[in-house]
Amino acid sequence: MSATTASLPLPKAEGVAPRSIRSATTEPVWVKWTLIGVALAFLAFFLFVPLAIVFVEALKKGWDVYLAAVVEPDALAAIRLTLLAAAISVPLNLGGGIAAAWCIAKFEFRGKNLLLTLIDLPFSVSPVIAGLIYVLVFGLQGWFGEWLREHDLKVIFAVPGIVLATVFVTFPFVARELIPLMQAQGTEQEEAARVLGASGWQIFRRVTLPNVKWALLYGVILCNARAMGEFGAVSVVSGHIRGQTNTMPLHIEILYNEYQFAAAFAVASLLAGLALVTLVLKYAVEQRMKKELSR
Question: pTM, whole model, 2 decimals?
Answer without folding.
Answer: 0.81
